[in-house]
């Protein structure tokens, strides 16, 4: 259940692990799947009926998959070497790792090689399904590629363990590259605070004071739900997306049924795949109830 906190990474990981276990022990694989999905199902039922509702998403084709796929080399290289090195050097080094892994896989043909291959392919398949049909916000970012980075690292370290000098040198190099960026940023973080932090005055959203002070019974929507949630601890839904057919019409139907509040953040750049506030106001009769320099709140019904 903790895996679902990372959304698609966790859910894709569960099904990828199920496929992996299926080749080893079918009975245990289904036992694992049941134990994994049972608490998730209870959580979804609770949020839908008792809390605030599951995000209004339906399966439909989302364009832009090939563009997201082009980000793969850049983002997987960032996981290994961070942006301390130039993009070109990172991609060359990561390509060497991939080619080495491929050569070792065909030479060794061990059980671990099969496990790594099945796990990696399964995860990428489920990740691609989410990108193609479920969420326009998901991409081949470093965050979503992290499980692939883990399996690839395990395989490389396992195969290099016999070459002691190279093995320990590689581990030290990867560790150094992972931490050097954070070490460089520590003074800034200590001085300014986290990007979303009460200690960071430039990050705080004043519009959130209204949301925090009110007992809201209806549904909350925003163009930046994660930012508003950080400062209010109240669950929000994302505004309708242009990637989904009829999402604006469905949003209107929801507004006719339930009381809603739209917390529109002006401070951050607009998300091109979302309908703008102007487009939403055209089809809905909403009342402005609060406005600050960083955001505006509209109420419906």
Summarize the structure.
With 301 residues, the protein is an alpha/beta fold. 60% of the residues lie in helices and 8% in strands.
Descriptive account of the structure:
This protein has 301 residues and is an alpha/beta fold. It is built from 12 helices and 5 strands. The chain has a 5-stranded mixed sheet. The model has no long low-confidence stretch (mean pLDDT 79).
Core attributes:
single chain, 301 residues, alpha/beta, 5-stranded mixed β-sheet, 5 strands
What's the topology here?
Elements: H1 8-22, H2 26-51, H3 65-69, H4 72-81, H5 87-108, H6 111-133, H7 142-160, H8 164-192, H9 208-213, E1 219-222, H10 225-232, E2 237-238, H11 247-257, E3 260-265, H12 277-283, E4 287-291, E5 295-300
Parallel strand pairs: 1-2, 1-3
Antiparallel strand pairs: 3-5, 4-5
Helix pairs in contact: 1-2, 1-6, 4-5, 4-7, 5-7, 6-7
